[in-house]
Amino acid sequence: MATxxxxxxxxxxxxxxxxxxxxxxxxxxxxxxxxxxxxVVTDGVRRLLGREATSFDQVAKDYAHFFTVxxxxxxxxxxx
Length: 80
Prior knowledge:
- The protein is mainly α.
- It has a domain at 54-80.
- It has helices at 17-34, 44-49, 56-62, 71-77.
- The termini are far apart.
- The mean pLDDT is 79.
């Protein structure tokens, strides 16, 4: 099946200098975060809630049923 030239779309906008600068900044930010640059731990949760924050591992265990093959919608219907 041949594709006509009318079906092929060209980009309507090229990347601007500003787009390239933002992409570079985002890449640097991600690189820093992946190396722990944003790994700041505060006591904000403890001060606000009066208890320690729940660990990621515990949240993952508690809510694993929301991330099943059937998805959260199938799980939520069980609670109706």
